[in-house]
């Protein structure tokens, strides 16, 4: 194995290793630790784009990478979502992220993971669809914005927060992801029928 063939997978595993550190930072509950968590999340998100780009450019796309990369993304996103539902705004004591959003996102991810497992039993490696890539991009952008809920800026006479922008992006990601989940489900079922599984 050479450097080029291992670097994309190393970056994927590095994203997984960020998760426990992310949890510790969120649990600390201070503004500084939250900002550190946001920085770690953004770093991990960047590795997601870099490892995919390198794997395609160097033509070292592997079965391991095809399976582990989306799982690493899910682990990172799920962890951040749970931490944000648990976090509270200082003035209102409301959850930073509505629980229903986290449930919708997590339910979809569990469903797709199950479908991937079913497809794997048929010898099919289901790569990420366009909707999955859009969904992931939206979530990786939205989550840091939601976590930076204390940053606001004026737009005319209205004050907009990073949190509001992040929540809107998450809502769009939910719509896109469920549309993609329907397409994905149909694709796997059709393949199962072809194989008589």
Question: How would you sum up this structure, described in words?
Answer:
With 197 residues, this protein is mainly alpha-helical. It has a single domain (3-195), classed as Up-down Bundle (Four Helix Bundle (Hemerythrin (Met), subunit A)). It is built from 6 helices and 2 strands, in the order H-H-H-H-H-E-E-H. The protein has a two-stranded antiparallel ribbon with strand order 1-2. Strand 1 (152-155) and strand 2 form a beta hairpin. Helix 1 (3-28) runs antiparallel to helix 2. The two termini are 36 Å apart. The mean pLDDT is 87.
Q: What is the distance, rounded to the nearest whole angstrom, between the alpha carbons of the first and last residues?
A: 36 Å
Counting copies of identical and different chains, the oligomeric state is single chain
The total count of helices amounts to 6
Q: What is the CATH topology?
A: Four Helix Bundle (Hemerythrin (Met), subunit A)
The residue fraction in helices comes out at over 70%
Radius of gyration: 18 Å
CATH first level: which class? Mainly Alpha
> Per DSSP, what share of the residues sits in E-state strands of 2 or more residues?
under 5%
């Amino acid at each position: 194995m050479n450097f080029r063939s291992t670097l994309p997978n190393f970056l994927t595993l590095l994203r997984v290793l960020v998760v426990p550190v992310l949890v510790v930072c969120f649990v600390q509950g201070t503004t500084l630790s939250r900002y550190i968590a946001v920085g770690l999340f953004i770093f991990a998100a960047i590795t997601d784009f870099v490892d995919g780009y390198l794997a395609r450019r160097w033509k070292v796309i592997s079965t391991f990478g095809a399976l582990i990369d989306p799982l690493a993304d899910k682990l990172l996103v799920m962890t951040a979502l749970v931490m944000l539902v648990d976090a509270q705004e200082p003035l209102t004591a409301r959850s930073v992220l509505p629980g229903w959003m986290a449930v919708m996102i997590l339910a979809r991810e569990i469903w797709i993971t199950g479908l991937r497992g079913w497809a794997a039993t048929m010898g099919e490696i289901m790569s990420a669809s366009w909707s999955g890539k859009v969904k992931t991009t939206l979530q990786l952008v939205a989550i840091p914005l939601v976590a930076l809920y204390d940053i606001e800026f004026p737009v005319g006479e209205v004050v907009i927060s990073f949190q509001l922008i992040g929540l809107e992006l998450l809502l769009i990601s939910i719509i896109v992801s469920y549309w993609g989940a329907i397409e994905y489900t149909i694709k796997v079922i059709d393949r199962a029928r072809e194989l008589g599984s």
